[in-house]
Specification:
The chain is α+β, with helices and mostly antiparallel strands. Helices cover 49% and strands 15% of the residues. A hairpin with a 2-residue loop joins strand 1 and strand 2.
Length: 612
């Protein structure tokens, strides 16, 4: 960071500055504290899709400018693109980047607080809030959220710092820097366009001189307008995994009101005071806030009291809280209302803290504006604080203790351990398979990636072999002669495939099948759905078998000599019919009908899962 003068004439970097030293120590300590949690996380859910897409695509405009369900984030896509090429599932690199971005975000906020309020000890309170609040913890444990929000948490305070310097010094270069930081934020996060709005409110309420900054506002608009046009165009034209463009729909008034109330009273306010104290696990590696009702109401009462005290004592404190409420409604709530609320529902979306993780920086700034005079501000107080002067101390202490408790409660789960074990076990299994081994490309377990949300990107080939480094043959439907096809078991190991269902045993000798259809009764007819038929045969020469169950039919080759061929059909029936196509005769032995599963009695590769 460059050396800049604060309103008090002190340089940004000055030896012996106790407030600066304390702030730097606080940033370092929170990094050590959060490193323990970050190092236990692993990639999850859409992380695997983003890494696979990065490996599938070149560094192109279409790849970078894809809007993913309302998120325009070319910067994050660029990081995913590079990360995939620097080791695939390189969680160590992801952790280093996470902690590096977290450190930069803390330093950027410290710089803003020093420039805006001066190097007074009071700025350590909002800084401490931003560093310890559990509002950011769930987002910090999810790589896709980190790649979006942490760059924004750097850009916001850096842009506001440059804007404050522009207003105070009149130097246009600071406005250019503010615009550049805003553009940097926009590259990563759709909430970045609100940075100039915050700058305008800050100027109007505390800095003065808004009218003489017309050239500055014109510059900011020159950044915002092209972005808005580009975003709307990409939003309306990008095809999602559902084969549709991003849906834009508004919920009912009842659903919207419940969602806003839940997000405000169940998430934003409690986490601002050290909550939520209790979590609702979503799988093993993530959790939603689950604030107990008594603590929710207690948090709301404390928040109302804090707002009332600040408004009574501090001039324009009302504007600070109004700014936070406006940002919450426009930046946090509105995007959820335009599509996601219908998918997630008001309860799930209302307790999802990743929607608020970036708001922690705004809350920290608002706390400062509501309780600390801006450097050079005239008549900041409406009345003396009196006995309320130290009332913040017990509140801050309770908030700090609650934050440590809440973060510890969040970390009291496997986090990424089991997902990492599954993925690394599957990767080790593929590395040991001979070239050409047929592997059925099934969906990974939901703890890794939800097929309901990510479709083909939840298949093993996309999750554990996105770069196609392993020379196996992936197949989604078993069809034709195969010796020993493989399938993943529940722990990520490869085992021989078996069919769970019915067996039509061979008789004393194989049964000839020619051009006329031969029917075989199925002992336990399948109810429906996709079924696989495994047919053992003995051929004098290669032929083709037509396989029929009810109205579903397909044709598969059957090679010469002794072998096994597979056919996949949709539907079930009480009997199976076979005939040859194009002449020839096949002698059929044992037939199995069912769904593919891992043969738990056969040897697994590797013998034991990779444990971390």
């Amino acid at each position: 960071m460059e050396s800049v003068a604060t309103a008090g004439g002190r340089p940004w970097l000055r030896g012996g500055d106790a407030v600066l030293a304390a702030g730097l120590v606080m940033v370092a300590v929170q990094l050590v504290w959060k490193a323990g949690l970050v190092n236990r996380t692993y990639f999850r859910q859409d992380d695997f899709m983003f890494l696979a897409r990065g490996l599938e695509n070149g560094f192109t405009w279409d790849y970078l400018m894809r809007v993913d369900y309302g998120h325009l984030m070319p910067g994050a896509f660029a990081i995913h693109w590079a990360l995939g090429r620097l080791g695939g599932h390189n969680d160590v690199l992801a952790h280093v980047l996470t902690l590096g971005l977290q450190a930069a975000a803390g330093l950027a906020l410290l710089r803003l607080l020093r420039v805006l309020f001066g190097p007074r000890p009071a700025i350590l309170v909002p800084l401490g809030f931003a560093l310890v609040t559990p509002m950011t913890i769930s987002g910090l444990s999810w790589w896709a959220v980190v790649a979006e929000t942490l760059p924004f948490q750097i850009a916001l305070p850096m842009a506001l710092t440059s804007h404050v310097l522009c207003v105070r010094t009149g130097r246009f270069r600071h406005a250019v820097a503010a615009a550049a930081w805003t553009a940097f934020g926009m590259v990563f996060f759709v909430k970045a366009p609100f940075i100039p709005v915050l700058a305008f409110v800050l100027t109007l309420g505390w800095l003065g001189g808004a009218r003489r900054l017309l050239r500055v506002w014109a510059l900011y608009l020159a950044v915002l307008v092209p972005y808005a046009v580009l975003f709307l165009h990409q939003l309306l034209t990008t095809v999602q995994l559902t084969r549709q463009t991003s849906p834009i729909s508004l919920p009912s008034a009842e659903v919207a009101a419940k969602s806003v109330w839940t997000l405000l009273t169940g998430s934003l306010i409690p986490t601002s005071l050290g909550g939520p104290w209790r979590w609702q696990p979503i799988g093993e590696d993530y959790a939603l806030a689950a604030t107990p009702a008594p603590l929710m109401w207690a948090s709301l009462a404390v928040a109302v009291a804090a707002v009332a005290v600040s408004v009574r004592l501090r001039r324009r404190a009302w504007l600070a809280w109004a700014t936070l409420l406006g940002y919450f409604l426009l930046a946090d709530v509105a995007p959820i209302m335009l599509g996601r609320i219908e998918l997630l529902g008001p309860d799930l979306s209302g307790y999802e803290l990743r929607y608020l993780s970036s708001t922690a920086v705004v809350v920290a700034i608002v706390i400062g504006l509501a309780f600390i005079p801006v450097a050079g501000e005239r008549r900041p107080w409406l009345r003396p604080a009196g006995r309320l002067r130290l009332a913040w101390a017990p509140v801050a202490a309770v908030m700090a203790v609650g934050s440590v408790w809440s973060v510890a409660a969040y970390a009291d789960r496997p986090l990424g351990r089991n997902v990492k074990s599954y993925v690394e076990t599957a990767e080790a299994a593929l590395a040991r398979m001979p070239a050409g081994t047929v592997v059925l490309d099934t969906y990974v377990p939901e703890k890794v990636t939800f097929p309901l949300f990510f479709y083909d990107y939840a298949r093993h080939s996309k999750v554990v072999d996105p770069a196609a480094r392993h020379h196996v043959t992936w197949t989604r439907r078993l069809a034709g002669p195969m010796s020993v096809p493989r399938i993943f078991d529940a722990r990520g190991r490869l085992r021989p495939l078996r069919l769970a269902g019915s067996t039509i045993p061979a008789g004393a000798a194989c049964r000839p099948v020619g051009a006329a259809e031969v029917r075989f009764p199925v002992p336990a007819p399948p109810a429906g759905g996709e079924q696989v038929v495994q047919i053992s045969y003995l051929n004098g020469e290669a032929t083709t078998l037509e396989v029929r169950m009810g109205l579903a039919r397909t044709s598969v080759p059957a090679g010469a000599n002794l072998g096994i061929t597979y056919a996949t059909l949709d539907g079930g029936a009480p009997e199976l019919a076979l005939r040859t196509v194009g002449g020839g005769t096949t002698c059929v032995g044992e037939i199995r009908v069912g769904v593919p599963a891992a043969d738990e009695t056969a040897a697994a590769v590797p013998p034991q899962p990779v444990e971390r």
